[in-house]
Specification:
Length: 208
Amino acid sequence: MTTLDRRALLAALPLAALASPAFAQLAAADQALADKAVAYLDGLKEAQGRFVQTDNRGATTQGKIFIKRPGKARFEYDAPSGLLVVADGLNVSLFDARLKTFDRTLLRATPLNLFLARRVRLDGGVRITRVAQLADGFSITAEDVKRETRGSITLNFSNNPVGLLGWTVNDARGSSTRVRLTEFRPTSGLDNKLFLLRDPRPQPSPIR
């Protein structure tokens, strides 16, 4: 996996372009759905389930997902992928067991920070461009107002009750990555050790 691929993977993980939506141009019915989605995200403190990720070429990977707000998430990819992505409240770390690579990025520099914040905010930063009804719920498409993150994200929700079904990230190059959640449910008591990831590679001995 190249550095670009690893950055694309991190970009595919955000659950929260809605964390600071701008609602000014939405119709009343669409705003009501957006409000429902944000209220759900804001109330989601701990959750776990499984995900299926499909890239632009149709290749799929899957694994387990754990979330503990504020600040913590874990994406544990099934074999033979060998990927593990962990947000510990400060950093997002990605370890590729097959390639023996380890990358770390500040959480605040990733879209994950929006969703994992202590409180989901509604005062700007992201523009909702489309709200659509689905057979099993609704979807909300949003983009970064400041254009610091090119592309858009579409989040899919069930309606009664409201729940997150997954999301699709479309980047500036026209590529899309879809994540579908299964067995995703609120939980409690997740061990904080799930959200710690140190570089597991052997470290060089200090020079004496």
